[in-house]
Write a structure and sequence with these properties.
There is one protein chain. This protein has 74 residues and is mainly alpha-helical. The protein is 64% helix and 5% strand. The protein contains 2 helices and 2 strands; from the N terminus they run H-E-E-H.
């Protein structure tokens, strides 16, 4: 269920255009440059949104469906 199968994969060229105004001279010792972090966030954003949507759908099926069944049987 939590497998990433996005129909539109982010394109690296678009990530470069999106992050071109971020300074590439700021270096973090454990994460790379500020531009690297911006590109990582751009490339992972669709996956995070899909994961949140799937979690809400899972909670919906776990709680809402039994509630509807209960209210329908009364």
């Amino acid at each position: 269920m939590f497998v990433h199968k996005s129909p539109s994969t982010p394109i690296f060229a678009n990530a470069l255009i999106h992050c071109q105004n971020v300074d590439n001279n700021i270096v973090y010792s454990d994460q790379g440059t500020a531009q690297d972090i911006c590109i990582d966030e751009y490339m992972n954003a669709p996956w995070v949104v899909e994961l949140v949507i799937k979690i809400f759908l899972l909670f919906g099926f776990i709680f809402i469906v039994p509630l509807i069944l209960y209210l329908g049987s009364r």
